[in-house]
Amino acid sequence: MHIAKLALVQMLIFAVGLACAEIALRYILPLPVHGGTYHADGGKSVRIANDRFRLKPNLDVTHVASEFSAQIRTNELGYRKQVNESTAPDYLFLGDSFTFGHGVSDQDTFASIFCEENKHTCLNLGRSGTNTFSQLQVLKYAIDARGIRPKTVILVMLAACWINQSGNDLGDNLKHYRSKNNSSAPGIAAARFAGTAPLSSTSAKEAVSADQKSAASQLTNSLLKNIQSWLGEFEITKRTMLIVSSRLKSSLYACSAQESIDAAIASTRVALTELEQLATKHQFSVKVFSIHPYQELDGTFRKTQSNLRTAIPETFEYIATGQRFRKTHYFPYDGHFNVAGHANMAFVIERRLTEKRP
């Protein structure tokens, strides 16, 4: 009984100590929210999105998070600002937050580095939080409404074999396809729409089973994300996650079932086929570069690259980059490319395009 009371007292003392530390950190030295916030002059938090096609034109803000403080500017068209811009660019960059340059300043994005060092005219249409279907709409708007006429489009895809990986274009494409087509077995529908062979009845049952497993997995991951979001509100937890997040995220990483990956690839093929049609209509070439979350750098990226290759149209050039990156190229907590990662990506792009010159 005495030991139990002593243990209870120790627990109360520990809890009070944690509460005091949390209060002190929260009001004296708080960390920014995960993912960061955008601040205008005077420190006021602002939104940078204008609509689903563009950012607000002529912005000059600072992107602030626990791991970075970056200058973000947009041009008069509402795209990420960089040198040597043109409405008929040599290269137009298309992609998600990695392409946009989440967490790094204008001059440090791989698009800006590549274009400045090689004296190319360019535009960066990268948009955070988008999938390939959404990026295609951003490009269509730029062509139809803004008169953009690119010579070459460089599409950078964040791809992972864990379909529920945050920001994974493959998984996001599958979710988008399902939401637009109301299909109970989108892997089957997407594959047929994309021109692949119809599935046998056995394969159909396996695909439906995979969908059911995927739904259960999504529910579990949703619960985990809610817990993570709640814990992320505590200053003590934020600092702990900053220290252990890289190792923890890697240890929790696992590839999805092949049936789920196949469905995601089929959905991605649909999006890329639409991009191919747009490229033919407006006579620009497309080069697809795949990049990966740092959890795949242990070698899993090879499986992802092999799967993604089957979704790339024959008229596109596909460039796999997984073997070119190291964990030091990423923000450990945030997970995006850091300045070194962008510099490395610019080098990979330059080297690849240089190799193709006559």
Explain this structure to me?
This protein is an alpha/beta fold. It folds into 2 domains: 1-30; 89-355, 3-Layer(aba) Sandwich (Rossmann fold). It is 49% helix and 11% strand. The chain has 11 helices and 9 strands. The chain has helices at residues 2-28, 97-100, 110-118, 132-146, 169-181, 186-193, 201-231, 235-252, 258-282, 301-309, 339-355; strands at residues 37-39, 45-46, 60-64, 69-73, 91-95, 122-124, 152-158, 285-291, 317-320. Strands 6-5-7-8-9 form a 5-stranded parallel sheet, with helices on both faces. A 4-stranded antiparallel sheet has the order 2-1-3-4, with no helix packed on it. Helix 5 (169-181) packs across helix 9 and helix 6 runs parallel beside helix 9 (258-282). It starts with a helix and ends with a helix.
Summarize the structure.
With 358 residues, the chain is α/β, with parallel strands linked by helices.
Q: From the helix content, strand content and strand pairing, which structural class follows?
A: alpha/beta
Number of domains: 2
CATH architecture of the largest domain: 3-Layer(aba) Sandwich
Given the C-alpha coordinates, what overall shape results?
globular
Helix content: 40-55%
User: Got a strand count?
Assistant: 9
Poorly predicted runs are: 184-208
What amount of the residues lies in strands?
Answer: 5-15%
Kindly report the name of the CATH homologous superfamily of the largest domain: SGNH hydrolase
Q: From the alpha carbons, calculate the radius of gyration and give it in angstroms.
A: 22 Å
> Roughly how many Å apart are the termini?
84 Å
- In the sheet with the most strands, the strands line up as 6-5-7-8-9
